[in-house]
Amino acid sequence: MEKGKKVILSGMRPTGRMHIGHLAGVLTNWVKLQDEYECYYEIADWHALTDNPAKAREVNTNVLGMVRDWLAVGIDPEKATVFRQSYVPEHAELHLAFSMLVSVPRLLRNPTFKEKLSEIRKRKGMTRMTLKVGRLQVEEELEQALRFLREEEVVKAERMLHSLINRAKEEVMERLAEDASVEGSAIPPEISYGLFGYPVLQAADILLYKGEIVPIGEDQLPHLELTREIARDFNRIYAPVFPIPEPLLTETPKILGTDGRKMSKSYNNAIFLSDPPHVVEEKIKKSVTDPMKVRRNDPGRPEICPIFHMHAFFNGDEAEGIERECRAGKLGCVACKGRLVEVVTEKLAPIRERAEGYTDGEVWEIVEEGSKRAKEVAERTMAEVKEAVFG
After folding, report:
1. CB burial class (10 A; 0-12, 13-18, 19+) of residue 340?
2. Among 63, 70, 184, 238, which residue carries the largest CB count within 10 Å?
3. Which residues contact 221 (CB under 8 A, 6 or more apart)?
4. Which of 237, 273, 281 is nearest to 24 (CA)?
């Protein structure tokens, strides 16, 4: 590692083999960054358990697949430190120290936690509010109000309706207040402390190596802000140990899955770097396209088509012409897919070949060696932390 370079920490949870969405969104950028910065690329295996602790049984296999693909696309262990989070116990130690500096209300405002909470509530039907105003009572009062209206007793009808509406409003507000609290059933039992406190561990990941730069998309800025707050609070309360990390905003090419949703292993809509040519062809040919483009000469909308997004990343030289012909109805989806199969197969072939060239033993050796280097840095940082806290 060259001295004087700014430090970057970035990582991924080990979920298995990488797909082309990872290549476009993260890995291509990582390869560039390792020449410009002192990079630490983390295998975030503790983070992999926040959704489901039972995933621990899959982690070792997933680490092997993921790191094999990292190496195949050009991550160089001589330029960047590739390490496994759980091999460096100082992550957990710094997480504990930082947890003393963060309030529960602050963690409740974390956007990712709120999204996860909303997702679980929707799945369990918890977003449907049950009001105490009984259905029978409501029907009776509405019937009474209608009778008053028919009898032209408008004032009485208005009073009855206002009373009913106000009671409903009060109960809705009460229920919303309950949902906003951490009491009772507002937080489902599926939410573990690990999931709730994961941003604090994330802050420890970054600051343990005194990360100065964090490559993220604009939508992730709120997540980084908590790390910045923790660094400022620690420096103010104890001693100026940590830099305040700055975001390195990166433009992420839009790669959709074969079903038009975000590309994800869990959606079964991903094209993997390790897929052989016949699988790539099968997935691309089955991919959805613009539903409005039924016939070859129908004008298309490339901006919503997964096939065009892949062309834009893998086939930049032809992408402009493909977009123009698609919009003009001069290019059919079958031909467009056929050309994409050729391009993607050609681009993935050397990546797949390099990945297959690594043995499991070689991959583990790289991870273990990188983890030793990371641990040396982590030990120095924790010595500074303990000196700052306890004197």
Report:
1. buried
2. 70
3. 247
4. 273
User: Is the pLDDT at 244 greater than 70, yes or no?
Assistant: yes
Q: Which helix (H) or strand (E) element contains residue 193?
A: helix 193-196
CB burial class (10 A; 0-12, 13-18, 19+) of residue 291? Answer: exposed
Distance between CA atoms of residues 388 and 386, nearest Å = 5
Q: Report the run of H or E that residue 323 belongs to, with start and end.
A: helix 316-327
Asked if 117 and 191 touch (Cβ cutoff 8 Å), the reply is yes
254-272 burial: b if 16+ Cβ within 10 Å, else e: bbbbbeeeebebeeebbbb
Per-residue pLDDT tens for 245-270?
999 998 788 899 999 999 999 899 99
Which amino acid is it at 186? A
DSSP 27: I
The rounded percent of the chain whose pLDDT value lies above 70 is 87
Going by C-alpha positions, the residue among 173, 3, 12, 8 that lies closest to residue 80 is 8
Tokens for 38?
């002192």
Q: Please determine, for residue 335, whether its predicted confidence score (pLDDT) is greater than 70.
A: yes
Q: Please state, in angstroms and rounded to a whole number, the distance separating the CA atoms of residues 73 and 71.
A: 6
Residue 109 vs residues 47, 153, 187, 214: alpha-carbon distances, Å:
19, 49, 14, 21
Task: Say how far apart CA 12 and CA 42 lie, in whole Å.
Answer: 6
Query: Pick from 177, 185, 172: which is nearest to 129 by CA?
Result: 172
The Cα-based distances of 383 to 28, 43, 228, 231, 375 in angstroms read 35, 23, 21, 16, 12
Q: How far apart are CA 254 and CA 301, in angstroms?
A: 15
Q: Give dist(CA 71, CA 63) in Å, integer.
A: 12
Q: What is the DSSP secondary structure assignment for residue 252, as one 8-state letter?
A: P
